[in-house]
Amino acid sequence: MTQDIRQSHIAQAIAQRAHDVLISHNFAQQQIGYIHTFDMNFGESVPQRTMLEVELAAAAKRQEKSTSHHKYIAKASNHLHQVIESGIEMQLSDLDSIYSEVVGVQDAVPTILDILAVKSASVGRLEPLVNDLSWLGRDLVSLVNLPQYRKVNSKGTSVKVDTPALALRYLGLENLQMVIPTFAVRHWMPHSTEPFPLLKRKLRDISMATAIAAKALAPLYDVKEQHAFTLGMLADLGKIALTRLYLKTFDRVWQGKIKIARDKNQKDLHTALLELGPDPLFLRNLLLEHAPTVSQRLVEQMAFKYLPFNAAITEVAQSYLPNMNKNLDDLLPLTQVLKKAYGYAQYQLLKDSHLIEDEEAKYWFAHLELTDQEQDLLSKTSLQSLQLTIL
């Protein structure tokens, strides 16, 4: 095996593992054959009483029944997910619905991001748009009223900001270039990702880490920091959309199948369906296969006038997974920044979960073409804090 092929194989495994750990830590461990130490029997074996023949026969019968039951559940799950997969494919063909209903993007958000990208940007131009987005106004007011950002008057009393207009002026345009894309992506996150409770937080964290890393790398590639940060925040919109779509579709199809089984008195099927829940492997594969394309389509749907994102997000989608046959030459500077930032955010996620070895990290950084200078820069960058400066 050549060094290039070995690097490609390791990079593919790491990219998949980064998606596994998004779903859950236990799922990622299972995918790499992790053995819990408390499942292992250390020391002397515990003496066991010899089982009687009748007990052996009963145990064998229980095992057979259990195996048969699990096979039936697996069959029911397979059929259920075939229906779910068809439903998702049909819904993905309706981009307008994914954009406005599944993710819930309001047209004012891309307009605000566009305004923030031009020299003629002003708080006055943003104010009427923010007033139309009640959630954004509330978030901005809550932010500036945090203890670390509150202003103090001449009497030493904290001044409370109570309107979005004041919050906008208090923050200023430079801070808003980071705050508004961050709040927008947070607003689009699923309200709940049960039965994968940490998925929502991890999606939020990796979006934040990608955006901050991209902003840090941008000057090295003569890319505008605001462009890098904003596209970094938007890069995982596909995962947000697909997670929402899968959990919603699963619930709808599952409840429909349970009703049919109950109405037809199909007790075995009804029992099996009650034991089923959203499948981590199905969701992982859905994200791997479709997230980059869905992200690309959603960013294009935003129809930015001044943010040059379409070409870069297309290149990212085309080269999303490590594959020697899909590497693109002469990537745009913004694409290079985004791919390195996202790759480093994936590395950080795996490192925090203790799921990447030092030797694997070396191969991963080589695949990303992340230089020693860039690694040093990112290692010193706080990837979960916006580091706002409010005067």
From TrEMBL:
Chain segments annotated as transmembrane: none
Pfam families: HDOD
Domain HDOD: 102-308
InterPro entries: HDOD
Entry superkingdom: Bacteria
SUPFAM superfamilies, sorted: HD-domain/PDEase-like (SSF109604)
Protein name as annotated: HDOD domain-containing protein
Organism: Pseudoalteromonas luteoviolacea
Phylogenetic lineage: Bacteria, Pseudomonadati, Pseudomonadota, Gammaproteobacteria, Alteromonadales
